[in-house]
């Protein structure tokens, strides 16, 4: 399974369709998608999520409906 980079807008569309929210690992600058039930994650807004992606030079990759955040 090859992970292909996708645009932020495409990632947002997939996330919303799957009921995922942007999250930050508490006490770190790590981000990931969440359903909002993990106590180790705090839900953040999409603008903050996008800002962290850009600042840390990260990009969302997708394959077969799975998304992963990786370095550009």
Written description of the protein model:
The protein is of the alpha+beta class and 72 residues long. Helices cover 29% and strands 36% of the residues. It has one domain (4-67). The strands form two sheets. Strands 1-5-6 form a three-stranded antiparallel sheet. Strand 5 (58-63) and strand 6 (66-71) form a beta hairpin. It is globular and about 30 Å long. 10% of the residues are buried.
Order of helices and strands: EHEEEHEE
Count of alpha and pi helical runs: 2
Helix content: 25-40%
How many domains? The number is: 1
Average pLDDT confidence is 95
- How would you write the strand order of the largest sheet? 1-5-6
Shape, please?
Answer: globular
Cα-to-Cα separation, first versus last residue? 18 Å
Largest sheet: 3 strands, antiparallel
Task: Give a concise summary.
The protein has 72 residues and is an alpha+beta fold.
Pick out its properties.
3-stranded antiparallel β-sheet; 36% strand; alpha+beta; 72 residues
Would you spell out the secondary-structure blueprint of this structure?
Elements: E1 4-5, H1 8-18, E2 21-25, E3 31-34, E4 41-43, H2 46-55, E5 58-63, E6 66-71
């Amino acid at each position: 399974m090859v992970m292909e980079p996708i645009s932020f807008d495409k990632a947002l569309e997939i996330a919303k369709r799957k009921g995922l929210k942007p999250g930050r690992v508490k006490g770190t600058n790590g981000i990931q998608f969440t359903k909002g039930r993990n106590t180790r994650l705090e839900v953040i807004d999409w603008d903050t999520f996008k800002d962290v992606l850009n600042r840390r030079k990260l990009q969302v990759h997708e394959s077969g409906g799975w998304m992963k955040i990786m370095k550009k």
